[in-house]
Design brief:
Length: 155
């Protein structure tokens, strides 16, 4: 479902925005600090700070629904993946990836003129957890005529 080009995009310096909801359908938004795409398993591991985003993590534990938008800040090319997620402890691989992602993302944002003091709250890995998303749908979200277009759906 996730082709090599999309996988490369998802693991490049892109903002990773998480969308969940609680049982009363109240939405919650958060950020992840890295992604590992596992195309052979049809899933994406996302690293997020449970300390910073406790409601998001609680929502996933409660209902498993997760929507993730990957957006490149330089041109807003964006894709969204949706599916069912589970929360697991972050492994050493996930922690290392989060540190690399935060360095790469801070540099990419600095290149766009955003100072680290502004972006630091977006890049937090305190008390990391892994959100393993089994991808069921992929959409184009880049602003324009194709925004919202379904690319792939798990049958």
């Amino acid at each position: 479902m996730i082709n090599p080009d999309l996988a490369a995009f998802m693991t490049s310096p892109v903002m990773i925005i998480l969308g969940t909801r609680d049982d009363a359908l109240v939405p919650e938004i958060a950020r992840a600090v890295g992604a590992i795409v596992r195309p052979e398993q049809g899933c994406v591991d996302l690293i997020a700070s449970e300390w910073q985003w406790p409601k998001t993590v609680a929502n996933i534990r409660a209902n498993g629904r997760l929507s993730v938008t990957f957006a490149r800040p330089s041109d807003y090319v964006s894709y969204q993946v949706k599916g069912h997620a589970a929360v697991t402890p972050a492994s050493a691989e996930h922690v290392a990836l989060a540190a690399q992602y935060m360095d790469r993302m801070a540099a990419a944002l600095a290149d766009l003129g955003l100072e680290k003091r502004i972006t630091a709250p977006w890049l937090v890995d305190r008390d990391p957890v892994t959100l393993r998303l089994a991808v069921q749908e992929v959409f184009v979200q880049t602003p324009g005529a194709k925004a919202g277009q379904l690319i792939e759906r798990d049958q």
